[in-house]
Amino acid sequence: MFVVKRRKEVNPFFKRGRPTDFKVGVFIPLPYEAAMSSTFTHMAYAFLNGVDSVSAYRYVYDFKEDVVEALDSNLPFNKLDMLLVSTSFEFDYVTLARVLLRFNLLPKVKGGSKPLVVVGGIASTANPLPLAGIADAVVLGEGEAFLEKLPEISTASNPLDVLSGLDFVFTFSSDVIKRRYFVDDLNASYYPRIQVYPLEEEPIYGHGLRVEVSRGCRRFCAFCMEGHVMNPFRFRSLTTLRNIVEYGLKYSPVKRVVIYSLSLFDVPHADAFLNYLSNESIEASIPSLRPDYLTLSRLEVVKALGQKTLTIAPETLNKHIGCLIGKCVDQETLSEVLSNAYRVGFNHVKMYFIEGFTEGDVEENVTKLKNLISKLVSELNIKKRKFFRITVNPLIPKPWTPYQYLPPSYVLNLRKALELYVSELKSKYVEVETYDVNWGFAQSVIALGNEETSNLIIEWARNGLGISSFKRALKDLSLNMFKYVSHGWEDPPWIHRVDVGVNTKYLTTRFNILRHKTFKSF
Ligand code: SF4
């Protein structure tokens, strides 16, 4: 369950820690390639090792071998003072629970002994309740304030007491509403300009300096938890971005950056930044983009930066629904973007769609997409195999979005709809992937869970990490315990425990609008 697996890397820390140092494990419950693409890994590792009395060590998880891999030291978790766990998705809780079970480190078992298990991430910020029997504390919001407090926490006789007193740290024994922390000014905040560069394994999105251009998003798409929970929209200035790139690339073996932004072209100087990269012959990985602002010149720059696949997220071709959910794109605009992408020379266009915004019109949605693709294939004489890469996800209800009132079981109704996309669209030119509704259901069960859901997560983790273990755990614990799974919440418990800065009146009003205009049975 635990191995030391050091990697060949450029820029790792070799800190000669003292035995008295406060020892922090930075654990990303994902494989090394995914963990190294997280900006938090780089930030926490660099920041904490820069603090005099703290030593930080990285840990990742290998799913194939079912082991925790220590990257920097042979210290097992029970020799650490704190385990700082960065979770990106709800399923990371299951992996974490499995690891803590194996090491006898679940709160009930370890009692007050070390390490303190502190979790952070978007999903746990939105709803920390399902981590009740798994973590000691949850950091709400962005990690900077917590990292800055760590020197103080590390010298306290009871660090958990200090954590409980922080406005942005949620602990399960207190009923006080805690507030999400966010950085006001990204230009003034700490950024890891020198980053660890893996030499053996390629991180997700490829090698290169991770550059976070913006945080939050101003679009508030109805289904998007990130867009709601990471508000407000903030961005780094062009000067700061250039400074990060110029400095960071001096320490990087490749002249390439990986851009992080939820909505890149909403940043006023996005064009100037991309042009700067292009003029400096710096390659870039560009995140998924909204199609509504993809002009020909922007596509040309993205292509010139070395991007072979253009990734866009129209989510729906139904303009009426699109405008209701925050993706107001008409078919003509999308058609133009796709034509331009082909002409500019992209090898593939990856498109994300979501099914489930409405009930009963899946045939219409599939036909629209099929017709659009057929028209483009014939008009442009497309010859590239699998030029269109389509991913269709089920609508997954998440906390702090208007869809938080839908039950998780709603996802299971979408199985046939997703199958129709595959059977109707797959061709020489079109690759179709769909997200398994069972996993979507499980994701929503955790996302919309309460304290009792942590028992489900622990039981799931005990039996393995597969979907059959989830189903067994759900059956064993009896559905009566989890009424919300099939009925949803009228009054979601998390809105009484955390304040993420989203008005609940807005959520109910928008849900009612969406419900009346799109759903028949809710
Ligand atoms: S534009 Fe993207 S990131 Fe922003 S709210 Fe919409 S889906 Fe979320």
Automatic annotation (TrEMBL):
SMART domains linked to this entry: Elp3 (SM00729)
Matches recorded under Pfam families: Radical_SAM, Radical_SAM_N2
Name of the protein in its database record: Radical SAM core domain-containing protein
InterPro entries: Elp3/MiaA/NifB-like_rSAM, Radical_SAM_N2, rSAM, rSAM_horseshoe, rSAM_sf
PANTHER family, A to Z: RADICAL SAM DOMAIN PROTEIN (PTHR42731:SF1), SLL1084 PROTEIN (PTHR42731)
Molecular-function GO terms, alphabetical: catalytic activity; iron-sulfur cluster binding
Domain Radical SAM core intervals: 203-433
Domain of life: Archaea
